[in-house]
Amino acid sequence: MIDQRNKTSQPVSGGSSTCHKRESAKKMISSTTSTAESQSSSLTTKEKPHFSQFAGQPLSVRQCFVETVGLENFIRTIIKELHLKMNEHVLFDMNSQGTLTRWDDVFRVEKTYTTCLGISRRTYTCHGYTHEPKKQLAYFILGEHNERSMKILPAFDFHVMIFCYYDSNGIVTKVDVQYDQMGFYMNCFGLAAMHSWCMRCLVTPFAMRWMDAYNKTGMVHPLTFLVQVLVTLAIFSYVVFQVVM
C-alpha cells in the first residue's frame, strides 16, 4: 500500500514542476515583449534620418505634410523636410519652356505673374514624396489652392509635379516643374469653371435622355451612332449657315 501511494504521488510533484516551468516561460515572454516595446518606442522618438542614409535603397516613399502660403515659403520648407540645402543658383525649369538660374528670380517671377493673373493668395500643400537616392532625385505632387483678387474670378485648385535634383553634398541643383499649362490658364480666366458648369448642367442631362431614347430603339451600334453624329453635324451646320446668311 505504501508503495502504491508513493507511485501515485510522483505525478503530482511532476505537475508542480511543470507549472513552475510555465510561469517562468510567461515571465520570459513578458520581459521580451516589454523590451521590444521599449525598443520600438525609442525608434519612433528618433530624429528623421538624413538623405544619405537611404543611399542603399533604390526607392523610398515617405510621408510628410507641408502647407504654406507663397512659393518661397513652400520651397524652403519642403527642402528642409527633405534634409537638403539651397544655394544661390539653381536650374529652375518650367515645362521645358522657361528656365531660370537664380532662386531670387524664381520667387520674383512667381509673385509678379500671380498678381497679373488675379491670384491674391496661393496655398501649397504636399502630403508625401518619392526619393531615389541613386539618382539623387526626389519628386512629389504639389497641390495649389488659388484665391482670387477679383470676385468675378473663381478660386480654383491645381496640381503640379515637381522633380528635385541635388548633388553629392545635398545641395539642390535643378528643379523641374511639370503641369498642365493650358488647364492652368483656363482656370485663371474662369473658362474651366464655365466648362464644368455647362457639362454638369446642360450636356450631361441631355446626354442621359438621348441615351435612354437610343437604348429603347434597340439599334445601339457603331454604324447607327455614326449616322446620328453625321445627321447632327449636318443640321447644326445648316442652322449656323441660315443664321449667318
TrEMBL record:
<protein>
    <submittedName>
        <fullName>Uncharacterized protein</fullName>
    </submittedName>
</protein>
<feature type="region of interest" description="Disordered">
    <location>
        <begin position="1"/>
        <end position="47"/>
    </location>
</feature>
<keyword id="KW-0812">Transmembrane</keyword>
<feature type="transmembrane region" description="Helical">
    <location>
        <begin position="184"/>
        <end position="207"/>
    </location>
</feature>
<feature type="compositionally biased region" description="Low complexity">
    <location>
        <begin position="30"/>
        <end position="44"/>
    </location>
</feature>
<keyword id="KW-0472">Membrane</keyword>
<keyword id="KW-1133">Transmembrane helix</keyword>
<feature type="compositionally biased region" description="Polar residues">
    <location>
        <begin position="7"/>
        <end position="18"/>
    </location>
</feature>
<feature type="transmembrane region" description="Helical">
    <location>
        <begin position="219"/>
        <end position="241"/>
    </location>
</feature>
